[in-house]
What does this fold into?
Amino acid sequence: MKALSALRRSKGLDVHPMDKKKIPGYTYCQPQIASVGLTEAKAKEEGHEVKVGRFPFVGNGKVIALGEPDDLVKTVFDAKTGQLLGAHMVGAEVTELIQGFVVAMNLETTEGELMETVFPHPTLSEMMHESVLGILGAVVANAILIGLIDHTIGGFIGQLVVAVVGACLLIFVFRAIRR
It folds into this structure.
């Protein structure tokens, strides 16, 4: 970053101050760990009223196919402004995924904007979206149910149940977003 700042300065371009809260941290281990911004505890310590979204990996079909369904994505937002204060991830490929939250924080994206963002399906990145939707409450419970049904029942009946539960989940999310 210092080299980029020096280059920008030499070209007469604006140099943005570095905000250390927006620099991702990551650990390459099994499972991988990645985070950016404030933890829930630190945000409260700094005086923020927070909303927290969580999404367990078991609710994502691609993670189940990878055989790593036991991990989590957690997002921390300011309850008054909707500002993304932090994101924390443990699991498959999270060192690659954290950059999405880094970009969101740098662009000062709010929870509402992230909720309305379309994420590709089926992908690992959609777990980031689900963690944001998790601040609505029941979404996480439904996603876990879908993952468990898909993982345990399987076959045509399992897919049919997942489709019905998934449709109900979408209806719930769209109604919640419109409020």
